[in-house]
Structures are given as structure tokens and as C-alpha cells.
Amino acid sequence: MPNENNKKVIMKIIGAAVLVFILVYLAITVIGPDERSLDDVIKDINVNTVPHPMGHVVVSPDLNASLAEDLPEISKYPPQVNNSTPTYIEIFSSTEKAGSGADGWLTEVAGAFNRAAITIDGKQVSVRLRGIPSGEAADYITSGKYLPDAYTPSNELWGEMINSKGVKAGLVQKRLAGNVAGVLLTKSKKDELVNKHGAINTKTITDAVANRELAMGYTNPFASSTGLNFLISTLYTFDSSNLLSDKAKAGFEGFQTNIPLVAYTTLQMRESARSGVLDGFVLEYQTYVNTPDIGYYEFTPFGFRHDSPMYAIGELPAEKMKILNEFVEFSQQKKYQNLATEYGFNDFNEYRSETGPVGGDVILQAQKLWKEKKKPICTVFVADVSGSMMGEPLNNLKDSLLRGQYYIGEDNMIGLVSYSSDVNIDLPIAKFDLNQRASFVGAVNDLQAGGGTATFDGLAVAMKMIEDQRAADPNLRSIIFVLSDGETNEGHSLNDIKDIVEDSGIPVYTIGYNANLPALQAISSINEAASINADTDDVVYKLGNLFNAEM
Predict the structure, then answer these.
(1) 187-197 and 202-210 are packed helices; what angle lies between their axes, rounded to 10 degrees?
(2) Taking the model in full, what pTM does it have?
(3) DSSP notation for 72-98
(4) What is the CATH number of the domain that holds 290?
(5) Same domain, yes or no: 420 and 517
(6) Domain carrying residue 152
(7) What is the tens place of the pLDDT at every residue in 410-434?
(8) DSSP 116
């Protein structure tokens, strides 16, 4: 039997063990297994500040002139339906109706048209159909890169813009299949706004955003039909008689300041909505009814109708006009309109736009205004210059930045970091005026590959640069672009800094060059940013749209 002293010793040991257990438990569950701060991570990294000579900058680049070069070859969009006869017309169609499944209504109509063996003036005729996003299709047409015979975007705004740029787009049919754009709101937010304002419309939405009652997201109006519709409709609420008046501009600036997200893609916007960041966003009805996982948002139509108008492009020969008219008539048959209804079209037929007609010149000026009135953003580009990037990957990375920088507005703040085994600050953050732009070009030109790959060290340094900038302006909007092949073999891991990235709230866009894309997507998914595959001939076009959306 142990004596009294032994019992006391045993009890002390047990007590100490219990205390250690409690402390360990608290460390794991409350503090976390490794609650390192960004400053702790930075201490482990060898960071160099590297000077570079200024580079050459084109002061007033003609972005329209470079558009044809930046667009991919049309082979990127192989026909959804190929022509079956030598006599045919080619149609560009928006993707919500020229894809597959529920997005394949016009695809099925075009296939049926070709099988019908229709003859015109003694010749059997057919159609070729390509599914291309409305904005990109308009860019093909206005740049002259590739001209179809006909074009059916989501709404008439694109047709007006094409005409204003000097390419004839003759309206053949106002409606192939009915559709509307809408604002999606959570039920609780919708009820709150209805109780306060009486109804949900574009003015309600703009007022609520301006008063910080609503966290709203929309898509890039340079690329998205719904985003463009929302931009024009918003300006209309501030001054219906003149969308470009000082009153409209001032109202829009106040509204835009409180928009937390202009998304590069609809997918990115939906992911942000799922995360709880957004109370609402914009989407077409046909997409809404075919996306069950967003059914908890309630749909309210707004702006211009999205009825898929059909345009003849240029001066079509009489024979091609006959084929086009025949195809339009074919699409209006009851069985094909019933099919459109089955796929989510032809609802809200009673809805009429609250916005009057808008000319193409006004639409183009509205896009320019949107670009100018966005809240400036602080961005750091993080470039992978490890040995695995040597040769073509690094050359493509540099070309992307040198050509893409012309889409970045001068009011934004830009910095550049490069990394291999160590991390270089090649360009400290500063306003992207002419001097900073020239310094950026010089730094990019100087990038050389070699060494290991410490991706997350480079990302940590970029975050630290932004954190220091935020010390002076806590409300500064920030994003990071990581340009890499996605492979990491030195320095910190994603797990080391994932929580730090998440807590910062900084979206990290990734652009992959000959890349491990899933590894890059894992970085971008932390704060609902997008990941781009740069191994395509349209990477500069993609970056232009991304920079337009963000900067």
C-alpha cells in the first residue's frame, strides 16, 4: 500500500497531466494547431527588393486595333451544328441556347432544319451554328476577325453596339425565344426591401446598394449580356432622359462604390453567393430555372428583355437572306417553341422593360463610364520565375502582362513580385500612372527563370505588401494575381497560409502556364476567385476581360 506522501506525489502527477491535457486541448480547438501570423511566415522568407530600368509604354494604345490579334482563332468555337449542304448560312449564337441539354434549344432547331432538306430556288440549304458568348461574338464581328452571316445574342444591346461601330447588323427577328434577366435575392433580403420600399425593381436595388442595405454582385458588362443590361438599367434609374448626364454619373458612382463584386464569370458570382458574401446577384431566368442549387434565391425580372433577337450581318446576298428568313420561320413552329418552353424559355411573357430604347453610342459610353467610375483597386502580380518556367511558359507569362496591362486603369495601385527559391519585390505598390506603368514594363521585361518554386512564399509577400498598404487605407479593395505553372517544391505550403489568405478576404486569381491547374484552382477557391488556363491563344483576351471586370 502506498504511504501518504506517495499518494500526494501521484495526485500531483495526475493533476499536472490533466492540466497539460487541458492546455493541449485548448491549443488545438481554440487557438488551432498552428496559428501563425503573416508576419511569422514572412520572417522565414528571403525577400529581396530588386530595381529595374523603366520600359517603353504606348501612351494611348488603340485597344480596338489589337482586338483582332487578342481574340482566339474561330476554331476555338467549333460548330455545334455543321452545314450539311454547300449552300448555307453561318450563325453565331449566345451559349444559353447553342450548347447542349437544357442550353441546346437552338442546337436542336438547327439540326432539325438541316435534316428537313429544305430547298430555296431549287437548292437544298442548311445552317452552321456556333455557340459563342454574346460579347465575344460581337468582338469577332466588330474587329473583323471573323464575320458570320447572322448573329443572335441574348439581347438587342449588342446589335446596337455593332451598328454604332460601323458594322451593319440588320434586325430580322426581335424574338426567337422569350427570356428575361433578373435580380436574385435571398428571401429574407427580398422581404426586407419590399417592406421598406414597397416593391423590387432596379431603382429599389440601386437605392439599397447606395445605402449599404444590400450586398449585390453582377457580371462584367464588357462580356456579359446580363451585366451590360444591369449597367444600362442602373444608369436609367438615375436619369431616364440622359444616361450620361452629370446626375446619372454621380448617382452611378455612389452606387458602384458599394458594389462588393463584379464577377469575371457567372460561376464565380454564384460561388460568392453560396459563401454568404452576397445578398443578391443578376442572372437570366432560363439559367436560373435550370440551376437547382440556387433555388433558394427568388427571381425578379429587370431591364431589357433577353429574347434572342436575330441579326443579318453586313450586306447579305439575297440567297443567304432567304435562308436566314426560312430558318427564323422554322424556329417559330409550335413544336420548337414548346421545346424552348421545356428548356426554360418563354416565361415572363407579360414583362415589359422599364427602360426605353438606347443607342449603341450611348451603350459604348456607358461601358467607358463604368470602367472609369469603378472604385480603384490595389493589385499585386505574383510571377513564377522558377526553373520549370524557363522558355515558352515564362515568355508567355511576360507577353500576357505586357499586353494585358493596357486594360488596367491608371487610378489602380499595382505592384509586382517574382519568386523562385527566394522572393523578389520587383515593383513596390504605387498608383499605375505613366511612370509606374513604365516601371512595370521594365520589371516584367527583366524577369528570368531559374531555381526552385516557392509559390506560397511569393503569395505571402504579396499579401504583406497589401497589408502594409491597407494600414494607410483600411477600406482599400485588393486582389492578387498568381501567374505560375502551379508546382511548388520549396518554402511554405498551402496549408501554412490558407487560413491567413482566408482571413484576409483577398481574392487570389490564378493564371496557369503549362500548369497543374487543380493546384492553382485550390488557391483561387479560398476566396471565390477565378482560375484561368493560359495555354490557349486567347489568354490576353481573357485577361483583358478579367482586368476590365476588376480594374
Answers:
(1) 100
(2) 0.83
(3) PPGGGS--SB--SSSEEEEEEE-TTTS
(4) 3.40.190.10
(5) yes
(6) 75-178+307-342
(7) 889 999 999 999 999 999 999 999 9
(8) T
